[in-house]
From TrEMBL:
Pfam families: MBOAT. One of its GO terms (biological process) is lipid modification. Keywords: Acyltransferase, Endoplasmic reticulum, Membrane, Transferase, Transmembrane, Transmembrane helix. The chain crosses the membrane at residues 65-88, 108-127, 386-403, 423-443, 455-472. One of its GO terms (cellular component) is endoplasmic reticulum membrane. One of its GO terms (molecular function) is acyltransferase activity. It comes from Chrysochloris asiatica (Cape golden mole). This is Lysophospholipid acyltransferase 1. It is found in: Endoplasmic reticulum membrane. It is a multi-pass membrane protein. InterPro entries: LPLAT_7/PORCN-like, MBOAT_fam. Its main location: endoplasmic reticulum. PANTHER family: LYSOPHOSPHOLIPID ACYLTRANSFERASE 1, PORCUPINE. It comes from the Eukaryota.
Amino acid sequence: MATAPPSSLSYRTTGSTCLHPLSEFLGIPLDQVNFVACQLSALLTAFWFRLYLSPGKTNPNVRHVFATIFGIYFVIFCFGWYSAHLFVLVSVCYGIMVTASVPNIHRYSFFVAMGYLTICHITRIYIFHYGILTTDFSGPLMIVTQKITTLAFQVHDGLGRKPEDLSAEQHRLAIKVKPSLLEYLSYLLNFMSVIAGPCNNFKDYIAFIEGRHTHRKLLGVNWKQKAFHSLPDPSPTGAVIHKLCITVMSLLLFLTLTKNFPVTCLVDDWFVHKANFLTRLFYLYVVMQASKPKYYFAWTLADAVNNAAGFGFSGVDENGNFCWDLISNLNIWKIETATSFKMYLENWNIQTATWLRRVCYERVPWYPTVLTFILSALWHGVYPGYYFTFLTGILVTVAARAVRNNYRQYFLSSKALKVVYDVVTWAVTQLAVSYTVAPFVMLAVEPTISLYKSIYFYLHIISLLIILFLPIKPKE
């Protein structure tokens, strides 16, 4: 590393600085260049891992070791000494896994992991505020927190609860034997998911390492040939190529659309004081659309990395095609064509929504929706914008449900009316999502209030009026 960093913000990172010339050439912050470089390296490593360390010719422990070593290297390359946070949390929680009593293992793991993550969120905000460093190490820490708590609850289900007390899914995922240190480290720190996720289940990961992953899924969907030796060996190549095409398109959109329509446009003088109301709504939609490609890029590339290693097979669809979406984090088509707030959310950050359901919503005895909201907010961080988004989201969700349950049936009598309904609800949904998630991207209080004032808090007011005056009918 250089002894004295230059003034350029792109150089200010705790990770490796060997790609600094490329960062300067592209005009992209160095930490983002490091992230992409690690994920592309992980993709190449994944192909090598599947071809040369395949389960058929490699001991599972060897696969665990290599997956862990590469993961640790990529974390250190990206985050430097910040990676110590990850290793400390993993070490402490493995100590809990080994020493804690079964009735308490999930509680201790949950509170330690979430507590450490929250402390790091608060610390990073103050560091970011004072401009000392720009590297965001919270992403890997958030993914590891999901995995630690998921594993702890599944061990508790397997060792501390009666089978009859478990749901079908909890019974399927329950773990009867505590993982070894090597299995624990490999699950949490493997190169396929340590940088950008997504979260996955311990049983699925171990089945992948041991070579039972695809065959178990094929048997699970009643493949016509039941003999183990006669089952096909699905190749992920097609799925990987498809997802890489999406990542390239997302990257191009990021380098063009996102650069030309940054979120700061929503608080500049022209937007706040000169544009008319409809122009502001349209511009808000465009800017929020421009903020998506980076998520599409990161999550789809992460999915492709796992698939390239042979992980992520989910079975066979109704047409007999092999599916590789077991741990996919989003469905772009359903997001962009969503005709309801619920449909949009169900296809965005899918694995996080699944984690929230499994560790909170299905387990807490009181106020599951409220407590799940609180957990989601804490997991994301402590920026005020996150809380604006979640609170607004509650209002919009309740109002949208009331409108749908009261009026949707009137538009189902003909195809023409249904098309009109779908077009209108699509436009309303896209605008509502843009309005709701803007604070999530803006982060701070002042720009959020400025934005909402400029568009007269219209969605808050409409949602409140709907909730107050429209009867809340049960879902049909």
